[in-house]
């Protein structure tokens, strides 16, 4: 893999994570349990879609094949998506959505902070913008995990179920592959493994407050960020997300 | 009766009534109904647009639509807060929405079927809403008037965005133009219905106007809306689906066909294309969310007790 | 509207009804409450898709624009679909699915019996094939409505809810418009209104056995068979149904 | 022990054991496990294919896939009925599936990600299944052997249909060809795993073979499958994702790489890509369906009582 190809892959990973998670979060629109949560979820989705525009926009430039952020979002099939599996998992109940969000947010903030120091100024610039938004996301999702984990018996049970369900998707975000190695070497992105200790500390702290138990297993699903084997969910997401562009190719909207 | 006269005098003098001021029970009741209905409309109004968020054609359009729907939820929040100053809680109002005791704007009982509907909703529905709301910035109840100031600013932004979508569609491919025309065909009359039936048939109008809860007659606003919208449709190259539409030099406005008021009353009775789904969606959100609200409440309570104990 | 255009519309109505309902029923695959029901639902969906091939195949020939049944199924947008609103309603629970099926089946059998006498031999031929399958559908769905209506308190309540929810979609199938009038005049299809009495009798009989009460309202939703105003559901069905053909235009499968 | 010897003698003589015949507890238990697991595989196997029914590219393909999935449910039914002759009910077996006490074939814990997977499942997965099942037509337990005869006939039909899909894809557009290759890449090793680990590591094999519940070793069948499948892949113009694959003249078969048995055991432990979803889907179907089963039972009971009363 050339450096440029790896760089493109990496940018797709960043952009596809925010695209797919933003899509998932936007599915809540109008259906949240509390009005304030409807607003907050829409706000999160909005931030993520905005970040997608930046990451995939840059990805298209780096690729140099004249593909815009929209082309990348709307005209690739599932196998070309590079989001981690966590982001494409279904919303489930509100607790599952917020748990997914928190697990992602903590990783997301950590990598963005690393990317602020990127040797690529464009990357550092995007990261600096995104970090402000994600700081807020992680506070919010963390608070929600705490209050629902340490709420009623039922809310505790649901949050523990969500954590058990989603924990096996955490590992993928931290296990480096050739793309990650190339990025670290070029100083574009931080070493993924270097982020894990702080992640675990943050998790430990929040889950303790939430009275939730982190599963005692380091089993990790994989196949999302490499694109080798997404879950069945991604294909269904794309049928919606890409519908108009697929049905009316070449139109301006 | 003396109090009543003094109250009316304050209103006539253009003073704002504030939450702690004395007010007639009917004024309070009418305001709760009107503000609650308005708030519910913002909330239910998320659904037809939410229906296209996951299918928005570009990232930019998805972001704009998300922001819009978020604004609407925000408007709902201001309005509920405003209504709460009248001594009713948001949960009470929500439950009245969910069991059908309170209404929301009938327009949201129509489906959104193509992307052009996202344009038409912004252009026509928000356009009609603004027409209703601009005068309400001068309404007599302070919290309501202030909420309206904020809301109107955002709504007119939404309307421009909607018109911009329509423009893209109307100047786009033949299929897009067809979508735009189709959206106008379906949403024109329902938009006219948003102003309510002719005042002759409207029951509470007179008292509401004296109280400055209602600032214009339904027919005035509808005329104004038509006069504003028809040239916009022409500019888009779209045809308003009303063969009787004609400029009337004498009145300085358009003559136009009345909507089918039977349909309007049918929709009010619950027989609109989407009434059942809209209420079902809101009820499901509420029911499914109970454990969340309970959990958050329980946690807040634990915190409070923890703090008290620590003191 | 020319006779040919009306004939094309009519064939699309028949084919779109079976296509869309067949799609809905096929969504159950693997998720039914009893294994025998999984098999029966798949069988019903299969029959309906088979009928779709015949109706839309003929529609394409009548239209004379070289569109195959697949072209019609996979490349029209929602506004060109002519199925009645009943068929696109969501599955809901199993009771709702079976109630929708029964309401449709009774109408379907009645019109197919009329179509067996069609002045168009091709139509008569398709109807004769379909009638055998639909006879079985109506028996099955009727039996299910009876046993769940007259089952437990809960099953009764669910079936009554389903009937209340779906009854307003019955009227559309019987209210004739210009297309129906042209078809009746040409002897291609029976007068829709002439089918209603037998439908009501059949409904009355089965609902009585099911201890269910038919809503006392003749309000009827409309807009499906004319295509003027489908429900929001149809568009979502199409994002799935048409995905591959839209994403990979011109491929052979 | 005498009974046991007589039993073994009957089996050795090629007689079929029938439900009412005496049989050792271990024979019964092993058969229940094996037939139940086989039945569950048919049921769970509906899910990965069901995932594409609503996205089938043509009406014909949709019909074929529906018919196939329907057949699988039918196979499940035969096998449950067969297992029930051993004194266990379908509901008992279902509950053991749902709470994880009984297994189903690991292959169904892999996702179906493109339309080519519908081809590859038919070609490879049904192909491997047939390889397992054809010998079982001669198994010692009568009801099982007879179910297998019916099932094998349909399965080989499914396999041909799957191969036909692959052919269309492999000879199609570049994207289709890429889908076909991608499906083969993902499903090759999981298909090899379907025969189970090498017999050296397999615990129950020897007794099962003596009882003619198992007719061949896992390695024999796997070799046979590879030898059959590799030329088919070549004919399709696809590359088997195994760089070590080579014809071995001496053994008259292919040398090939073993699948990753750690992955296999991980999947068995519940860590396959889709274990959680598959079991969740089946549990949801069962739980959501309770009211239906209860309702039907209650109605049948009413009927029965009605008839008795009428007599």
TrEMBL record, chains A, C:
It holds the Pfam family PaaA_PaaC. Transmembrane segments: none annotated. One of its GO terms (biological process) is phenylacetate catabolic process. GO terms for cellular component: cytosol. SUPFAM superfamilies: Ferritin-like. InterPro entries: Aromatic_CoA_ox/epox (IPR052703), Ferritin-like (IPR012347), Ferritin-like_SF (IPR009078), PaaA_PaaC (IPR007814), PaaC (IPR011882). PANTHER family: 1,2-PHENYLACETYL-COA EPOXIDASE, SUBUNIT C, PHENYLACETIC ACID DEGRADATION PROTEIN PAA. NCBIfam families: PA_CoA_Oxy3. This is 1,2-phenylacetyl-CoA epoxidase, subunit C. It comes from Ascidiaceihabitans donghaensis.
């Amino acid at each position: 893999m050339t450096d440029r190809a790896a760089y493109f892959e990496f940018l797709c990973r960043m952009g596809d994570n925010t695209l797919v998670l933003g899509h998932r979060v936007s599915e809540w629109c109008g259906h949240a349990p509390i009005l304030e949560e409807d607003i907050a979820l829409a706000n999160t989705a909005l931030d993520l879609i905005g970040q997608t525009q930046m990451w995939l926009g840059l990805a298209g430039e780096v690729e140099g094949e004249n593909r815009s952020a929209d082309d990348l979002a709307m005209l690739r099939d599932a196998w070309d998506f590079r989001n981690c599996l966590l982001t494409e998992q279904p919303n489930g109940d509100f607790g599952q959505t917020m748990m997914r969000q928190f697990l992602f947010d903590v990783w997301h903030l950590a990598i963005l902070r690393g990317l602020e120091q990127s040797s690529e100024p464009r990357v550092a610039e995007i990261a600096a913008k995104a970090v402000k938004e994600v700081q807020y996301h992680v506070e919010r999702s963390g608070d929600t995990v705490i209050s629902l984990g340490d709420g009623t018996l039922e809310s505790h049970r649901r949050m523990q179920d969500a954590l058990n369900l989603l924990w096996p998707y955490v590992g993928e975000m931290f296990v480096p592959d050739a793309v990650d190695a190339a990025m670290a070497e070029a100083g574009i992105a931080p070493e993924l493994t270097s982020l894990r200790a702080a992640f675990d500390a943050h998790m430990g702290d929040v889950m303790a407050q939430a009275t939730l138990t982190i599963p005692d297993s380091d089993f990790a699903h994989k196949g999302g960020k490499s694109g080798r084997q997404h879950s069945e969910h991604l294909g269904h997401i794309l049928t919606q997300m890409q519908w108009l562009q697929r049905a009316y190719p070449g139109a301006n909207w | 009766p003396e109090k009543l006269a003094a109250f009316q005098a304050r209103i006539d003098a253009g003073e704002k009534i504030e939450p702690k001021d004395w007010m007639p029970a009917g004024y309070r009741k009418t305001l709760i109904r009107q503000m609650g209905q308005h708030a519910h409309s913002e909330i239910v109004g998320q659904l037809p647009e939410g229906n296209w968020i996951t299918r928005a054609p570009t990232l930019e359009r998805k972001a704009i639509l998300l922001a819009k729907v978020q604004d609407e939820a925000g408007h709902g929040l201001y309005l509920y807060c405003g209504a709460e100053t009248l001594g009713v809680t948001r949960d009470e109002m929500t439950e009245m929405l969910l069991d059908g005791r309170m209404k929301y704007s009938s327009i949201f009982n129509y489906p959104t079927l193509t992307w052009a509907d996202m344009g038409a909703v912004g252009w026509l529905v928000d356009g009609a809403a603004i027409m209703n709301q601009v005068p309400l910035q001068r309404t007599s109840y302070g919290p309501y008037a202030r909420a309206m100031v904020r809301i109107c600013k955002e709504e007119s932004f939404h309307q421009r965005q909607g018109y911009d979508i329509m423009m893209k569609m109307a100047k786009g491919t033949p299929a897009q133009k067809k979508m735009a025309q189709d959206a106008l065909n379906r949403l024109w009359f329902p938009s006219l219905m948003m102003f309510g039936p002719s005042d002759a048939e409207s029951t509470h109008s007179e008292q509401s106007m004296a109280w400055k809860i209602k600032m214009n007659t339904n027919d005035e606003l509808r005329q104004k809306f038509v006069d504003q919208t028809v040239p916009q449709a022409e500019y888009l190259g779209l045809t308003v689906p009303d063969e009787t539409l004609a400029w009337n030099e004498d009145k300085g406005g358009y003559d136009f066909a009345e909507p089918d008021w039977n349909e309007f009353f049918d929709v009010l009775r619950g027989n609109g294309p989407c009434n059942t789904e809209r209420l079902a969606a809101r009820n499901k959100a509420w029911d499914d969310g109970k454990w969340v609200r309970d959990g958050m409440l329980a946690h807040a309570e634990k915190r409070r007790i923890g703090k008290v104990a620590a003191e």
